[in-house]
Structures are given as C-alpha cells and as structure tokens.
C-alpha cells in the first residue's frame, strides 16, 4: 500500500501542469489559484475530521502567515506561467525550490553545506537555465521562454518559503492541521484581488475544466498525506528515485495531452537538474543536507510538497 501511495503522490504532482492548462480554457489564473486552495481546504478538512474528529486551525502564528504568503505566490506565479507557456513548464519550480532551500539552510539556519550540496545546486541551476533557454534566440527570451522562466523562478521561491515555514511549524503542529491553516489563509490571500483583477470565466464551461479544478484541489489537499505515509515504510532510495520521476511524467503528459514540443534542450536540461536532485538525495550520512531538505522529501512536505 505504501508503494501505491508513493506512486499516487508522484503521479498527482506530475499532472498539475496538464490540469492547470485544462482549467485555463474556462477560467483565468486567479480563479485557478483560488480553486486549488479552496477545494484543497475542503478535501483536507474532511480527511482530518474523519481521522481526528476535529480540526485545529491556527491563524495567529507568524510562520503560518509566512507559509501562506509563500504558497500563494507559488500557485499564483505558477498558474500564470502555465497559462501562457507549456504545460510541462512547472518542472522548473522544483530545482529553483531546491537551490533556495540550500541557500536558506546555509544563510538562515547556519548549516554547513558540503561540496556535494553545492555541486547539486549547480546542476539544478544549470538545468533550469538550459530548459528556460530551450534554444531560443537571446533577443526573443524576454517575450517568450524568458518570461515564463522568470515566473516559474518566482513560483519556486514561493514554494521554498512555504517549505521553510513548515520546518518551523512542525516543531509545534502536526503536518495535517498545519497545512490546513496555511492553505485556508492562502485561500483568503488569493481571493482578495479577484473582484478587481480577475476576468472570471474566460471560455466555455466544460466538465473537463471543472474536473481539472477539483482534481487540483485534491492534489493540494491530499497528496501530502499520501507522500508522508509512503516515506514511513518505503526505502529512501526508492522514494528519491520515484519522487523525482515527477518531472519525467510531467513532460510525457504534456506531449500526450497537448502535443507540447519536447526539444533536446528540455530533455537535456531536465536530465541535468534530475542529476542534481539525486546527488542531493543520496548525500552521505552526517551531511547537513537532511532528507527533509531534499527535493524528494521535504520539498514535498507541502503539497505537495511543492505543487
């Protein structure tokens, strides 16, 4: 069962780009951000109530607000970029998040980053640059892939802020109620500008688009539980390898569903930052890059752990 939960979480995260792209045929990115949190809170709240018989929502803590702002930025920038770019583009969020977490570990928490950690970060940065460039002439980057890469970079920074908040909050809260509090506040944050900025329904109403919005909420609310349960029993080597297959699946789905062009630059850049993930995931015991800070484990503390 643990292996099934791990696979479910991995597959769920890999479908985010396709689902956002599908939902964007009906509503704008602001509504998608709101729906991801709104439905996520509903499904997560039901799950926690069934498990515990009560809900513990805490809004007065500093790190709840920091995490909510980070996660709101993550979804907002990611959804805008997915709408204007390719459905596999959010594979860039994870390596950016990994680099930011490494820098935070060294600068904020004064942890020593080993040479292996810096090598992993270099691979992640190089991979993001290659995928973002994608062979585009430099003069066109600002209008095309350069803009989406910037948006995904901002989304990755937001995701990293969310993970950092979790590191602080897990000292006093359980993972489920912590995410419920953060996601509820994030819902309010992304909902605030909707009356002024959102265009609401921008395309034909369809069952596929509505299903995509609901599935995005399920992924936000429940994939963390699937992953958290899986890593309790599945060997870490399997978690690292399967968890990092998310980016591969995302590329496959983008081609199958939308025929997004998969160039040699996308494939090469993806392989480069996956190598960085694996270098960090299999750091030698005793290094400061703990599993909770790796892309396969802690970066996924949140929703997805990232998504």
TrEMBL record:
<dbReference type="InterPro" id="IPR037185">
    <property type="entry name" value="EmrE-like"/>
</dbReference>
<comment type="similarity">
    <text>Belongs to the EamA transporter family.</text>
</comment>
<feature type="region of interest" description="Disordered">
    <location>
        <begin position="288"/>
        <end position="307"/>
    </location>
</feature>
<dbReference type="InterPro" id="IPR000620">
    <property type="entry name" value="EamA_dom"/>
</dbReference>
<feature type="transmembrane region" description="Helical">
    <location>
        <begin position="88"/>
        <end position="109"/>
    </location>
</feature>
<feature type="compositionally biased region" description="Polar residues">
    <location>
        <begin position="295"/>
        <end position="307"/>
    </location>
</feature>
<feature type="transmembrane region" description="Helical">
    <location>
        <begin position="234"/>
        <end position="256"/>
    </location>
</feature>
<keyword id="KW-0472">Membrane</keyword>
<keyword id="KW-1133">Transmembrane helix</keyword>
<protein>
    <submittedName>
        <fullName>DMT family transporter</fullName>
    </submittedName>
</protein>
<dbReference type="GO" id="GO:0016020">
    <property type="term" value="C:membrane"/>
</dbReference>
<feature type="transmembrane region" description="Helical">
    <location>
        <begin position="262"/>
        <end position="283"/>
    </location>
</feature>
<feature type="transmembrane region" description="Helical">
    <location>
        <begin position="147"/>
        <end position="165"/>
    </location>
</feature>
<feature type="domain" description="EamA">
    <location>
        <begin position="150"/>
        <end position="281"/>
    </location>
</feature>
<feature type="transmembrane region" description="Helical">
    <location>
        <begin position="208"/>
        <end position="227"/>
    </location>
</feature>
<feature type="transmembrane region" description="Helical">
    <location>
        <begin position="177"/>
        <end position="196"/>
    </location>
</feature>
<dbReference type="Pfam" id="PF00892">
    <property type="entry name" value="EamA"/>
</dbReference>
<feature type="transmembrane region" description="Helical">
    <location>
        <begin position="63"/>
        <end position="82"/>
    </location>
</feature>
<keyword id="KW-0812">Transmembrane</keyword>
<feature type="domain" description="EamA">
    <location>
        <begin position="3"/>
        <end position="131"/>
    </location>
</feature>
<feature type="transmembrane region" description="Helical">
    <location>
        <begin position="30"/>
        <end position="51"/>
    </location>
</feature>
<feature type="transmembrane region" description="Helical">
    <location>
        <begin position="116"/>
        <end position="135"/>
    </location>
</feature>
């Amino acid at each position: 069962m643990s292996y099934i939960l791990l696979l479910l979480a991995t597959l769920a995260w890999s479908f985010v780009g396709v689902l956002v792209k599908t939902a964007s045929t009906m509503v704008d990115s602001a509504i998608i951000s709101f729906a991801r949190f709104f439905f996520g809170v509903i499904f997560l709240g039901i799950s926690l109530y069934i498990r515990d018989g009560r809900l513990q929502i805490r809004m007065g803590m500093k790190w709840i607000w920091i995490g909510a702002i980070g996660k709101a930025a993550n979804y907002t920038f990611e959804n805008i970029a997915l709408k204007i770019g390719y459905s596999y583009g959010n594979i860039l969020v994870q390596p950016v998040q990994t680099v930011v977490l490494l820098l935070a570990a060294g600068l904020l928490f004064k942890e020593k980053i080993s040479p292996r950690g810096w090598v992993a970060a270099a691979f992640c940065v190089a991979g993001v640059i290659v995928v973002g460039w994608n062979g585009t002439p430099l003069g066109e980057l600002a209008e095309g892939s350069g803009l989406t890469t910037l948006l995904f970079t901002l989304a990755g920074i937001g995701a990293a802020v969310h993970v950092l908040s979790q590191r602080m909050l897990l000292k006093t809260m359980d993972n489920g109620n912590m995410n419920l509090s953060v996601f509820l506040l994030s819902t309010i944050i992304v909902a605030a500008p909707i009356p002024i900025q959102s265009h609401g329904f921008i395309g034909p109403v369809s069952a596929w688009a509505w299903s995509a919005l609901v599935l995005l909420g399920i992924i936000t609310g429940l994939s963390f539980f699937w992953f958290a349960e899986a890593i309790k029993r599945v060997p870490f080597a399997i978690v690292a390898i399967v968890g990092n297959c998310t980016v591969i699946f995302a590329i496959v789905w983008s081609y199958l569903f939308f025929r997004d062009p998969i160039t040699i630059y996308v494939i090469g850049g993806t392989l480069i930052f996956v190598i960085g993930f694996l270098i960090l995931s299999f750091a030698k015991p005793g290094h400061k890059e703990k599993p909770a800070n790796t892309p396969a484990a802690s970066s996924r503390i949140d929703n997805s752990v990232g998504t």
